[in-house]
């Protein structure tokens, strides 16, 4: 059955997929994640969110309630990674980010950056304060980020 938007125009399947993809990718964008406390709170330690959590977001519900379609669109997006069972999803770009926890917001950025100024350490692209004393340190690649994860800072 066609899902109708508020203006009662039926969306063609192609348009629906496109709108859904935009909306889903928006939720998992770095920009949104840095301030979407609800979504962040739904993440497990590997940054996965249950797909039904995403499906129940307002912006998605107005487009579709078809879980298979949502899953299909998520699987086709390079921005996110769906687990093997198709039950949860996480942002893909986060793999090149490591999260420093328990670092107070009042800490100067330079001080956080200096932790990574080490000749064995991959180049840091950006350092940003997230919230709840979490900092996001972004690297060029997931390999870099994983290398840093093995460091003892």
Automatic annotation (TrEMBL):
<keyword id="KW-0694">RNA-binding</keyword>
<feature type="domain" description="HTH La-type RNA-binding">
    <location>
        <begin position="10"/>
        <end position="99"/>
    </location>
</feature>
<dbReference type="GO" id="GO:0045727">
    <property type="term" value="P:positive regulation of translation"/>
</dbReference>
<keyword id="KW-0597">Phosphoprotein</keyword>
<dbReference type="InterPro" id="IPR045180">
    <property type="entry name" value="La_dom_prot"/>
</dbReference>
<dbReference type="InterPro" id="IPR036388">
    <property type="entry name" value="WH-like_DNA-bd_sf"/>
</dbReference>
<dbReference type="InterPro" id="IPR036390">
    <property type="entry name" value="WH_DNA-bd_sf"/>
</dbReference>
<protein>
    <recommendedName>
        <fullName>HTH La-type RNA-binding domain-containing protein</fullName>
    </recommendedName>
</protein>
<dbReference type="InterPro" id="IPR058699">
    <property type="entry name" value="RRM_LARP4/4B"/>
</dbReference>
<dbReference type="InterPro" id="IPR006630">
    <property type="entry name" value="La_HTH"/>
</dbReference>
<dbReference type="Pfam" id="PF05383">
    <property type="entry name" value="La"/>
</dbReference>
<dbReference type="GO" id="GO:0010494">
    <property type="term" value="C:cytoplasmic stress granule"/>
</dbReference>
<dbReference type="GO" id="GO:0005829">
    <property type="term" value="C:cytosol"/>
</dbReference>
<dbReference type="GO" id="GO:0003730">
    <property type="term" value="F:mRNA 3'-UTR binding"/>
</dbReference>
<dbReference type="Pfam" id="PF26088">
    <property type="entry name" value="RRM_LARP4"/>
</dbReference>
